[in-house]
Amino acid sequence: MDRKRLPSLVLVSFIFGAGWIAAILAASITCAQSPAGNPTSNPPNIIVIFVDDLGYGDVRPFGETKYPTRRLEQMAREGRRFTDFVVSSAVCSASRAAILTGCYHTRVGIHGALGPSSQLGIAANEVTLGELCKSRGYATACIGKWHLGHQPQFSPNRHGFDYFYGLPYSNDMWPFHPDYVDLPADAAARKRGYPDLPLIENDRVLNPQVTGPDQARLIGDYTDRALTFIEQHREQPFLVYLAHSMVHVPLFVSEGFAGKSEQGLFADVMLELDASVGRILDSLHQWGLTNNTLVVFTSDNGPWLSYGNHAGSSGGLREGKGTSFEGGVRVPTIMWWPGKIPAGSSCDELASTIDVLPTVAGLIGAKLPAHPIDGRDLSPQMFATMDQPMPESPHPYFYYYYGNQELQAVRDRRWKLMLPHEYRTLGDTEPGHDGKPSPYRQVKLELSLFDLKSDPGERENLIDRFPAEAERLLLVAEQARVDLGDRLTERPGQGIRPPDRVAKE
Length: 505
Description:
- By secondary structure, the chain is of the alpha/beta class.
- It is 27% helix and 17% strand.
- The chain has 13 helices and 20 strands.
- A ten-stranded mixed sheet has the order 8-7-6-5-9-1-10-11-2-12.
- A hairpin with a 2-residue loop joins β7 and β8.
- α2 packs across α13.
- The longest helix is centred in the middle third of the chain and has 22 residues.
């Protein structure tokens, strides 16, 4: 097969088939805006536990063997694992924008990881999971890492959350970032890289200068705040979005878990996160809420592999955080709702964090946003019984954008086409150690086709054996470019909504 000829074939198909693509776009938007659920007299509580940089192979229900994660094992025994669950993009802010809006991150204009100097944030006209739940009378809490803009107008309190406690962005965005630890001890020199890291409660800075010992208390503090919120609002429906700062580097663990795993700091942190999950589940049992609470456990992206023994595992998937390979975008996910979700089950169909918002909308009877979203209702995949075939994925196709609006891959339920682009990799470089990363190198990827059902590790490029599948997915890539653009082909995108910016004084 002549690979150079593929793009021209697609361009001809696109020019003469624009009506077909427009029809697909219209059908996609209509389907995404049609929740399957109906209003209920006793709407469920919703808890979303969103871990930072947790790899596919970092918990025992997905293959980890070096340390136990007993409470997550309990969740899996009593709930459903989702084994092909992906994020919109393998980086912090973009992934958070997606789970909270039900949209591809590029649709809402949030790319990469917003830092302390960023003037961007989530737009006021976006509808977050918090706002969706509030429309149905829910009490709402965002606890942990926000990372969708640190300016006052972007705070969780102004985007649907009654209560916020946590960090405005990543826990490494402070004067002790690995890029600056070798600077002189003078604080001013380090702060030229990053300012002090604040801990915020609602719109008030609770602690203007977070220290290492403060970070060691974060998992426990976040969990305590979540438990208090659950107790205070147990008589009404509630949403808790618990976005842990760990296992994002720098790693910190509380005194009670230091050395407990005997497998190093990363494993100690994992034990504390697992215990946090257990404390949440125990509180639901304590207050008699287990039969009316959906708990979703997932991650924002794969492991930050350059940190070596302070990074997690992609579980045999290719690469990690910061790439569009499965190691970067496929995350361990468990959904738990005793009596509703079949116990000890799994779903191998394609699903995503962008599906959380429309799924919740269906469960609580909330209206979806008037503007287009990309997520789909996963209720059929959540509730399918063990004696019936698993319903197919609600996503005929899925797009992977990275960087500044760069389309890097498209896939369907089986096939994934990686478009030519540069990606970062350690290659044969020894990973970092004890909090200091090793440098990545940039590698060019040719047009590649992978069969994710037989080769989830993306080892064998099958583009020469299955040219028709590649051509079909190249048409899908054009569909993405029409709607969401592509920097590499200089396509602006018709369906993008810009983020908000801080007004200049």
